[in-house]
Specification:
The complex is a heterodimer.
Chain A: H1 13-44, H2 48-52, H3 66-73, H4 85-115, H5 121-133, H6 136-150, H7 156-179, H8 184-192, H9 197-208, H10 210-226, H11 229-234, H12 242-251, H13 259-289
Helix pairs in contact in A: 1-13, 3-13, 4-7, 4-10, 5-7, 7-10, 10-13, 12-13
Chain B: E1 4-13, E2 16-26, E3 31-35, H1 42-50, E4 57-62, E5 65-66, E6 77-80, H2 92-102, H3 107-121, H4 136-148, E7 154-158, H5 166-183, E8 186-191, H6 194-200, E9 203-208, E10 211-216, H7 218-223, H8 228-233, E11 240-249, E12 252-261, E13 264-271, H9 276-280, E14 285-290, E15 295-297, E16 307-311, E17 314-317, E18 322-328, E19 331-337, E20 348-353, E21 359-362
Parallel strand pairs in B: 3-8, 3-9, 6-7, 7-8
Antiparallel strand pairs in B: 1-2, 1-4, 4-5, 9-10, 11-12, 11-14, 12-13, 14-21, 15-20, 16-20, 17-18, 18-19
The chains are: A mainly alpha, B alpha+beta.
InterPro entries (chain B): AAA+_ATPase, ABC_transporter-like_ATP-bd, ABC_transporter-like_CS, ABC_transpr_MalK-like, ABC_transpr_MalK/UgpC-like, Mo/tungstate-bd_C_term_dom, NA-bd_OB-fold, OB_MalK-like
Keywords (chain B): ATP-binding, Nucleotide-binding, Sugar transport, Transport
Family (chain B): Belongs to the ABC transporter superfamily.
Amino acid sequence: MAEPKTLPGANGKRHLLGRIFIWTLLLAAAVLYLGPIYVVLSTSLKDLAEIRAGALLDLPHELNFTAWREAWSSACIGVRCEGLRPYFLNSVIMSVPSVAISTLIGALSGYALSLFRFRGANIIFALMLFGCFIPFQIVILPMAQTLGYLGIANSITGLIVVHTIYGISFTTLFFRNYYVSVPQELVRAATMDGAGFFRIFWHIMLPLSIPIIVVSVIWQFTQVWNEFLFGASFTSGGSQPVTVALNNLINSTTSVKQYNVDMAAALIAAAPTLVVYIIAGRFFVRGLTAGAVKG
Amino acid sequence: MATISIEHASKSFGSTDVLKDISLDVKDGEFLVLLGASGCGKSTLLNIIAGLEPIADGIIRLDGEVVNDVHPKNRDIAMVFQSYALYPNMTVERNIAFGLEMRKISKAERKATVREVASTLQIEHLLSRKPSQLSGGQRQRVAMGRALVRRPKIFLFDEPLSNLDAKLRGEMRTEIKKLHQTLKATMVYVTHDQIEAMTLADRIAIMKDGEIQQIGTPQEIYSKPANMYVAGFVGAPPMNFVDVDLVKREEQLGVILPAVLRGKPVDYFLPLPNSEQLHARENTKIILGLRPEMITHNAFTQTVNPEIACDVELLEPTGADTLCLIRLANHPAKARISPLFACTPGESMTFTIDMARVCLFDAESEELIG
């Protein structure tokens, strides 16, 4: 098929007007979205005197990273004045296993639900999907009791457990829908070759799953890293994740409101998800749309 | 030694019976083709032999041993799939070796065996490629290689050539046949292509609606089809079926064949050999089955076969033969003649009918008479 551009009559005046309209609209949307980020970023690079002078939208006079350093290592959160760093590490320790475990379990259950259609597989899948629609608030009390019973309340391990369980619904959905488009004959061929359930999974299915693994990792990482409610409810003090710490930092007023430190802290807390998306984002879009396995 | 024996096998998916009381024996070294339209249960039967589908009822034996509950990997069977089902993430070499790898065969031995199979199939130069870098024909060869490498006692093929273009299909058909002659292994081959079935099979089993209609050599199936379904399924163009009256004239049993000559209906009397079975049906309606080559031009001045003259509505030259569209008993029928004798459309010409080879079917049951 020819490119739409090269079709006859595609470059008329009306086409040009249409283009201008579309570009204006896109530009407006971009300004709307990027505006607040610009303000946060420029404020974080100003000193307090400059902020007090007003002119919210002005560029900073110089690149001043003092606020970033303070937010990272010396800002006071409650009574501890160590900045976000320990909580940031908490979040890393919490996110990495949660993402890895929930992705692996999702892959395994999605594989079982789609390619080993046992009796009742669809019902089990439908029930698992319920998990995607249960609001966090509903499970807080029973979850707190369970964590207490298991002896992992107020710990990062507890949060890992919670996030893994909560994530399985989503990861199973991703992997199940991805594997549905994998031809059954592949499993049959491997069965004839003598591979069992786990070996087929390990040698054939997982290597095929890179795009959907990326989707699952980005999705889970964003969810777990940005999550606030569970972190605030199930942990306190030194084991809190960075989102809770950020909230506490901003609410720990000493004498003056240090807007530049608050802004820098917010950016630090948001950075990992952005980085993950920038690195793997291409695969994210591809993975969500890709279905058929060629070969 | 590898024989397959299936006794009274049944299988249903939900409320549809896919296989109904199938019994089948495959001899050692035999090439059996399961032929049928899609949905007739032939692939299910193959999967049952492979062990990929559990059997609901009946017994399946390999070499006399009941294998109803034996896992596919322990049946010593290899299978080639319609979509080839190559592992997309592995190189051709690993694809072929995967079965050996799963059976814990040493790396050196795997490598040697794969080389050997690759050279048989002339795919040595492809060993380091991924399946996505191969053409359809090459993928097909790799799929064959994957089956061959384990030297199983039974090979199963599930429409392996249906994704290839016509020319390649012909070539691979010949190769599969050669392979069978060299290996002398038992092979079961599923297809809906009657030409594949005719050219490859030692015996063909024709299936319809989960039942075997007829089992026999290709020649038996072609010349003595058990019923009208088989007769119509095998042969291209298909057999002509004509509703005729069985009558007796001057002590000679025969059928009345209504044709059209110069726009006017004419009836021809075609004598049949006297037989008791036919006598019993005197003055009833039966169905006359004529393959196109049984209605042909008269190459000799003298013939024992009856002649009919009728209008030719249309000609379809195929190169070697020309097909003539004529009208018998108000239905279009095809005759096969040499292009040298072809008339122009709209004219009439004389055909001889090869009465020794015609098939007669019961009008009610559609079964072959005699």
